[in-house]
Design brief:
alpha/beta, 12 helices, 35% helix
């Protein structure tokens, strides 16, 4: 049985020995191949006789799946799986597995770290202290402060709820919009269910925690940025595809947004040399790192490997979730 661990080279910089160990606990004789993705043709050649695939970000559409005739299972070692053609995998009987809960607390912490760093203008002080050797608190714009301010959450799932709880500790009023959440569920984490127009009008900080769907792709566009009346801090630690990036740049240039914190960009392989968001003191970008901790990485590797081996050995009942309904 052949299992391929494939992704972009920088993504494969983690300790893959742990994944080898997890996979071989359940399938001792598995042939395990690591494939740093650089060329589609080479990837397809490697996948031609593969039974299982462990990946986070590689696109798997019909054309790609056509090159993988033996593939039986795909395990996603990331929270999102929007790059996989679920309908096509369902038609072919290829199970697609999600890992579920493993980094909620880390992502919520990261969200608050971005919010605080942007409000306190820390990038300005990094420059004035580290490079200019200048000791002036007033070198940076005056922070608005978070106490008494309104945080607007788009998406009140596990991560949104964890952010809402943390925001309570900073004395913030929390509004949220999520069609799948009841007022009682929102109230339980100190949030108040609201609507898009109210949040855009009243929020001092707006944070995106929506799953990416066809309906909300490029949801945050120029029209919505112009509707943000308080020129808020804008955060996205969810999916880069939720934002029209060129509209975000325009909104920043025109002062419609005070500051921006991003853990994701439109693509997982961004061109940072030409990215118009890079190099601004009111923008903090991290490299899809919100999930990152020793605890979460271990859970990510363990759960995704066990999902894959359970599928390949016929124990689907042990998989956290098969997201394409394959049985």
């Amino acid at each position: 049985m052949k299992i391929v661990i494939a992704d972009y080279p920088d993504v494969l910089g983690r300790e893959l020995e742990k994944e080898f160990a997890f996979l071989r606990e359940d399938i001792p004789d598995a042939e395990i191949v690591v494939h740093p993705y650089q060329d589609a043709a080479l990837f397809y050649q490697e996948m031609a006789d593969a039974d299982g695939l462990l990946t986070a970000f590689l696109p798997l559409d019909k054309a790609a799946l056509d090159q993988m005739p033996r593939l039986r299972a795909i395990s996603i070692n990331a929270t999102g799986y929007n790059f996989v053609d679920l309908e096509e995998t369902r038609r072919r009987g290829i199970a697609v597995c999600a890992i579920g809960e493993y980094c909620t607390q880390e992502v919520a912490d990261h969200t608050m770290a971005l919010m605080l760093s942007l409000d306190r203008n820390l990038k300005v002080y990094f420059r004035t202290i580290d490079h200019e050797r200048r000791w002036q608190y007033y070198a940076a714009p005056c922070p608005m402060g978070l106490t008494g301010r309104t945080l607007g959450l788009f998406g009140l799932g596990k991560i949104g709820k964890a952010v809402a709880r943390r925001a309570q500790g900073f004395g913030m009023r929390v509004l949220a919009v999520d069609p799948r959440v009841t007022p009682e569920q929102a109230e339980a984490v100190g949030a108040c269910l609201s609507d898009e127009a109210t949040i855009l009008r009243e929020a001092d900080v707006i944070s995106n925690h929506m799953n990416l769907t066809e309906e909300n792709e490029r949801f945050f566009n120029y029209t919505r940025f112009c509707s943000m009346e308080k020129h808020p801090i804008f955060l996205n630690v969810s999916r880069g595809g939720s934002i029209a990036e060129e509209d975000l740049v325009r909104a920043l240039d025109e002062g419609k947004i005070r500051a921006v914190g991003l853990d994701v960009l439109e693509t997982e392989k961004p061109d940072l040399i030409h990215c118009a968001l890079v190099g601004r003191e009111n923008v903090i970008i991290t490299p899809h790192a919100a999930f990152y901790s020793s605890r979460s990485v271990e859970a990510l590797q363990r759960i995704s490997c066990r999902n894959l081996t359970s599928c390949l050995t016929g124990h689907l009942n042990q998989v956290f979730r098969v997201v394409n309904g394959t049985s």
